Amino acid sequence: MTETVVVKVKPGSRKGPLVETDDDGALTVYVREPAVDGEANAAVIRVLAEHFGVPRCRIELASGAGARVKRFRIER
């Protein structure tokens, strides 16, 4: 089963690594890594893998590589 998740990313955050769920169910991921050379994207994948309890290889960035709002495909 594949699920698409929309995530708002906060790179360079002191709060991170952390996943917060808003009242409407939207996810916000805080990571310490800066948004340089894909470091923040890799960190978000690690955090999401831990949050959903799946291996990192089952999470794929579907869209938004350079944006703060990203879509990830999670294969469960």
**Count of DSSP E strands?**
5
N-to-C CA distance: 6 Å
Separate helix tally: 1
Fraction of residues in helix: 10-25%
Give the helix/strand class: alpha+beta
Shape descriptor reads globular
| Elements, N to C (H/E) | EEEHEE
Q: What fraction strand?
A: 35-45%
Low-confidence stretches: none
Gyration radius, rounded: 11 Å
Strand order of the largest sheet: 2-3-1-5-4
pLDDT averaged over residues: 96
The count of domains is 1
The biggest beta sheet, please?
5 strands, mixed
Quick structural summary:
With about 80 residues, the chain is an alpha+beta fold. The protein is about 20% helix and about 40% strand.
